[in-house]
Write a structure and sequence with these properties.
Number of strands: 0
Number of helices: 4
Largest sheet: none
Helix content: 40-55%
Distance between the termini: 49 Å
Oligomer: single chain
Shape: elongated
Order of helices and strands: HHHH
């Protein structure tokens, strides 16, 4: 996901706007917020290493917004559904 979008860019030339656009494009392409968050985490690590090696002065990924994640709500079974479920195991 990262290489096609930024693979030819020099790390020092990548700014927060380019990274934010990549993250938004990936979400619009149908990737889950969790996957986009993983992409951002990888980029954050890459830029953190580039800071350590003095390739860039700061980690521009920290200036981007992570994708909003919705919390999955598990369905709650009704008492009748619980009886049916336990009845299936009793047989």
């Amino acid at each position: 996901h990262i290489t096609p979008a930024l693979g030819r860019e020099k790390v020092a030339k990548v700014d927060a706007r380019k990274i934010q656009m990549l993250l938004v494009e990936k979400q619009k392409a149908g990737l889950s917020p969790r996957t986009v968050l993983h992409i951002r985490a990888i980029l954050r690590q890459v830029f953190e290493q580039a800071v350590k090696w003095d390739i860039v002065g700061r980690n521009v990924v920290k200036q981007t917004n992570p994708p909003a994640q919705s919390r999955y709500r598990f369905p709650v079974l009704s008492p009748e559904q619980i009886d049916t479920l336990f009845g299936a195991f009793a047989d």
